[in-house]
Amino acid sequence: MKMKKLFFAAIAAVSMLFASCTHEMDEILDTYKDQNTAIVLLSLGYDKTAWEILSTLPSTSVVEYLQAIACSRLGQKVEALEHFREACRLDDNMEYRGELDPEISELLK
Q1: 20 to 30 A Cα–Cα from 19, which one of 55, 84, 88, 90?
Q2: pLDDT digits (tens, 9 = 90+) for 26-51
Q3: What percent of the chain has pLDDT over 70?
Q4: Dihedral angle over CA of 79, 81, 87, 93, nearest 10
């Protein structure tokens, strides 16, 4: 019983620490509106925020590819496929990359 209480106390402490760090991280990332920030946000699961940043950036193959991933995660499959096709139009190598990416390859089925 003592071990169980200690376990739950540790989980509560980690949760509080994570919540505090998340707030600070949000404030830091909010000041940057670039491709690298969008990648970080996608990695953390902030797909809508990442998409919002990506939609303001100039169209490049990488930006289009990242928008395809964000749209796919947001359930916008048709738009995701359009972004992926645009990424491929801008850079032929994106076709190969898309086949290796589970989220993109799922769109291509």
Answers
A1: 55
A2: 666 666 788 888 998 898 888 999 99
A3: 72
A4: 170
pLDDT of residue 34: 86
Render the burial of 71-101: b for 16+ CB within 10 Å, e for the rest.
bbbeebeebbbebbbbbbebeeebeebbeeb
Cβ(51)–Cβ(71) below 8 Å = yes
Distance, in Å, from the CA atom of 42 to the CA atom of 29, rounded to the nearest integer, reads 12
Q: What is the pTM of this model?
A: 0.75
Q: Assign domain 32-107 to its CATH architecture.
A: Alpha Horseshoe (1.25)
Domain boundaries, the chain: 1-31, 32-107
DSSP-assigned letter for residue 34: S
Alpha helices in the chain (DSSP H): 2-30, 35-44, 47-54, 61-73, 77-90, 93-100, 102-107
